[in-house]
Amino acid sequence: MVRLVTVNTFAIGSFQIEIDFEDRRDSKYKERWCSNKEHVWDLHQRRASGQEEKIMNGASQNTSYEYGRWLAQSGENTSAAVSSVVPLAGSVNPWDIVLCTSGTVISCENAVVVVTIFHSPSLRAPMFVLIGSLALADLLAGVGLIANFAFAYLLQSEAARLVTVGLVVASFSASICSLMAITIDRYLSLYYALTYNSERTVTFTYIMLVVLWGVSSCLGFLPVLGWNCLRDESTCSVIKPLTKNNVAVLSVSFLFMFAMMLQLYIQICKIVMRHAHQIALQHHFLATSHYVTTRKGVSTLAIILGTFAACWMPFTVYCLIADYTYPSIYTYATLLPATYNSIINPVIYAFRNQEIQKALWLICCGCIPANILLRARSPSDV
Fold first, then answer.
1. How do the domains of the chain map onto residue ranges?
2. What are the TM regions of this chain, as residue ranges (predicted)?
3. Which of 104, 140, 221, 289 has a CB 3.0–4.6 Å from the CB of 285, allowing a cystine?
4. Within 13 Å of residue 187, how many CA atoms lie on the same side as its CB?
């Protein structure tokens, strides 16, 4: 038995909707449809009079929503096929919410570090200045993520978008460069232990800060100054409005700095092992004690470098191989772990430091616990 099917196609706004009426229930659905013609502005008659194009251009999303709600409430087994669906205006991407939340955590956590270092006169050594630079860069990165979310959904303009993207690029670049500067400082403090606390070290530290913030600021200004893909979408990278060449330069620079950090941390590891062995000989420690101390130092260095690579390497590699045609979910999935590095940095570089712990306890409680005050620094604390 051949079953006849009557197909009626209607166009509402940006939706294409097909309704199939089975032969057995044809009259019932048509009767239901005619009783609800006011929901779709009597599309049968308008299409018959040749005004389909006018309906396509003039129909509103509210009418589409009302018609869809009527279909859902009808309780009948109507077969509907939607060939193209455009998200309703005002919808928020859940990935953007996660990034904004991450930015909020980053800002709060690093603000504590910045306030602690700024408030404590004892934290003025080069090492603490560099840790403060790292915290400030991560703080600006968190503010940039929050501002990017706010401007994307509240103030939709190209100028605001370029400024927020530039802020995020500059702050994350300064964060990575600060990590590189901290690595150099740690290497110098171990390799030139006798002359480290000299004026030359202070001068060199401030030169590094000027250079890293200057380069990072230039990288952040590039999108604002015209190096963007707003006029030519074919040149866009996975992060609009940054160009493919811009992202490639950033990615290659990251790989270069990661290789330098790896080399420096290998040298630091060798120095730590040698120092631990010398201390063990001077104090007549057992071999097992020397092994435990050395293992702690190597583990600490492995955690520092491994965390940095795990957070940034996926996003860096993805930026090199992908372009704007790739699904945005891959960009979000690799960018989000990169932001987690700014959450982890205060834990690794600031809150583990004894002097910062003392300053933080003084600010919060006005006292220092005995276990922190009497704890000695070991070679594994690198």
1. 5-82, 94-373
2. 128-153, 159-182, 203-227, 247-266, 301-323, 329-351
3. 289
4. 16
Helices (H), the chain: 26-35, 43-48, 52-58, 61-73, 94-119, 126-153, 158-191, 199-224, 244-282, 287-321, 328-345, 354-364, 370-373
Instruction: For residue 108, give every residue at least 6 positions away whose Cβ sits within 8 Å of its Cβ, in sequence order, or none.
Output: 142
Could you tell me which residues come within 8 angstroms of residue 9 by beta carbon, excluding any fewer than 6 positions away?
A: 16, 17, 18, 19
pLDDT given at position 90? 55
Q: Beta strand 5-12 with 15-22: parallel, antiparallel or unpaired? A: antiparallel
**Sign of the dihedral defined by the CA atoms of residues 367, 368, 370, 374, in that order:** negative
Residue 153 exposed, middle or buried by CB count within 10 Å (0-12, 13-18, 19+): middle
Q: Taking residues 75-104, what's their average pLDDT?
A: 62
- Sequence letter at residue 187: Y
Residue indicated by tokens 């270069």: 256
Q: How far from chain centre, in Å, is Cα 248?
A: 18
Name residue 227's amino acid.
W
- The pLDDT of residue 76 is 38
Task: Please give the DSSP secondary-structure letter assigned to residue 88.
Answer: P
- CB–CB of 51/100 below 8 Å? no
CATH 1.20.1070.10 fits 94-373, yes or no: yes
Q: Which two tokens stand for residue 310?
A: 């795990």
Residue 271: other Cβ atoms inside 10 A: 18
CA distance 101 to 367: 33
Cα distances (Å, whole numbers) of residue 356 to 113, 119, 206, 340, 351: 8, 11, 20, 22, 6
Polymer length of the chain? 382
| Residue written as token pair 């120095």 | 271
**How would you label 273-289 residue by residue, b for 16+ Cβ within 10 Å and e otherwise?**
bebbbeebeeeebeeee
Cross-strand partners of 82: 17
* Full-model pTM: 0.72
Please choose, from the candidates 245, 255, 253, the residue with its C-alpha nearest in 3D space to the C-alpha of residue 223: 245
**What phi and psi, each to the nearest 5 degrees, are found at residue 2?**
-85, 130
Is the separation of the CB atoms in 249 and 222 below 8 Å? no
Residues whose CB is less than 8 angstroms from the CB of residue 85 and which lie 6 or more positions away in sequence, other chains included: 14, 15
For β-strands 15-22 and 79-82, DSSP reports them as antiparallel
Task: Give the model confidence (pLDDT) of 120-163 as tens digits.
Answer: 888 888 999 999 999 999 999 999 999 999 988 887 778 888 99
